[in-house]
Write a structure and sequence with these properties.
Elements lengths: L12 E5 L16 H16 L2 E5 L19 H8 L5 E4 L4 H9 L6 E4 L6 H5 L2 H8 L4 E4 L24 E3 L1 H15 L5 E5 L8 H7 L5 E4 L4 H7 L3 E2 L9 H14 L2 E3 L3 E5 L8 E5 L2 E2 L4 E5 L1 H12 L3 E5 L12 H15 L3 E4 L2 H9 L8 E2 L3 H8 L5 H7 L1
Bound molecules: adenosine monophosphate.
Adenosine monophosphate binds next to β14.
Length: about 400
């Protein structure tokens, strides 16, 4: 596989798939530019070599072709601000055809061209070869730096790679570090390897738990999904979240773990509340003896200490999903305690990877993002990777 860092982009036009699917406000200003910032090192390396950059991305989910609302033109100014004076940013109002070809042909070394939203063409999400081929004509080399869409077999994320020889396609720096971190956890994990799985629903996390049963030594289960596991063991969970159609499955997963000698840690106690609200009455209670009318909305005091003990003795940690309803102050303590423990383990030499929308939001909110080894930018992609699936965006570069 071609190494991005070792490739010399001088006089080359690099066609780079990025994930600039950023939120915009009513004035079309970028309100969270993390995804754009994440691609800047890749862009800067190409420019520093004396190459030019053609950026392709999607924005939102436009259903009926081109609309101003989903135009990437809105982010040009912000992109120029992020790259600074080293390069000039141009925009092409179409991502294929004469307009794009002309704009690409006029690029001078160190210029950047941002193409209009790929999803203005339905062919993008359908992964149509003819559309991918048209895109491929714009650049000399293809760089995929969009981990967030690596689980999609779209034209620009995977099919396009067929039109480049193996020495002309590669991961960008972001994608390289995402893949390296994920593979480190998944394929080369140092033991003990603890996976912390939280969030609302068991049904969303079944595949990841099943795959982790093959790799982890310990699995901590928190958040709303823990109560389905308690109920499966005949416990009283009051009005806590429960997926009754998954009780059998939860019991099977617990049994499988036992047979394999993997420790599953459930929260022994919970912060329970008399309603799902920020101003609810709360108290601490055994997770298996929650009174009717009350619900578990966070892991309890004992659970925090139990989980901490497991986490600080781990060498590899994967964290996906919050331990409670961390959006409300009264139910933040569990998720915060876990973030603290992960940071402590990391300081003591463990490798920790946090991924999946809500756990990433939580570590950012509590200020622990620079105290863990890696925070993944790809929610769905990261989840599918840990479910053991081959991601089309990764496979297309590697093959
Ligand atoms: P997920 O998207 O499945 O990772 O779930 C994240 C959501 O789960 C967050 O919005 C949390 O508020 C919610 N959540 C976590 N713990 C609980 C709980 N005990 N009861 C209800 N919702 C929860």
């Amino acid at each position: 596989m071609t190494s991005f860092s070792q490739f010399n982009f001088k006089d080359k036009k690099a066609l780079v798939r990025v994930d600039f699917n950023v939120p915009l406000n009513d004035q079309f200003e970028v309100t969270d530019d993390n995804r754009m910032r994440a691609a800047i090192p890749t862009i800067k390396k190409i420019i520093a070599d004396g190459g030019s950059v053609i950026l392709m991305s999607h924005l939102g989910r436009p259903k009926d072709g081109p609309t101003n609302k989903y135009s990437l033109f809105h982010i040009v100014k912000h992109l120029q601000h992020l790259v600074g004076d080293d390069a000039e940013v141009f925009f092409s109002s179409d991502c294929i055809g004469e307009t794009a070809e002309m704009a690409a042909s006029l690029l001078e070394p160190t210029d950047i061209l941002l193409l209009e939203n790929l999803r203005f063409y339905k062919e993008e999400e359908k992964g149509e070869a003819a559309f991918a081929e048209k895109l491929s004509k714009l650049g000399d080399v293809y760089v995929n730096d969009a981990f967030g869409t690596a689980h999609r077999a779209h034209a620009s994320t995977s099919i396009i790679a067929d039109y480049f020889d193996s020495d002309k396609k590669m991961f960008g720096l972001l994608m390289e570090s995402e893949v390296a971190s994920a593979e480190k956890v998944m394929l080369q994990s140092e033991k003990p390897f603890t996976a912390i799985i939280g969030g609302a629903k068991v049904s969303d996390k079944i595949l990841i738990i099943e795959n982790l049963l093959e790799r982890a030594t310990d699995i901590i289960i928190g958040g709303g999904m823990a109560y389905t596991f308690w109920k499966a063991q005949g416990k009283d969970i009051g009005n806590s979240l429960c997926e009754d159609d998954r009780l059998e499955l939860a019991a099977t997963l617990l049994e499988k773990a036992k047979v394999k000698g993997i420790n599953i840690h459930l929260p022994m106690d919970s912060t329970i509340a008399d309603k799902f609200a920020a101003d609810a009455e709360t108290t601490n209670c055994d997770s298996g003896a929650i009174p009717t009318g009350w619900m578990g909305l966070d892991i309890g005091i004992k659970a925090r200490a139990d989980f901490r003990e497991v986490i600080i003795n781990s060498k590899t940690i994967l964290w996906n999903g919050p331990m409670g309803v961390f959006e409300m102050e009264k139910f933040q303590a569990g998720t915060k305690a876990i973030a603290e423990a992960v940071a402590e383990a990391t300081k003591n030499g463990a490798f920790s990877l946090v991924g999946g929308g809500d756990s990433v939001a939580a570590v950012n909110q509590f200020g622990f993002n620079d105290q863990v080894s890696y925070v993944s930018t790809g929610g769905g992609a990261m989840l599918e990777f840990f479910e053991g699936k081959e991601l089309p965006g990764i496979a297309a570069i590697k093959k």
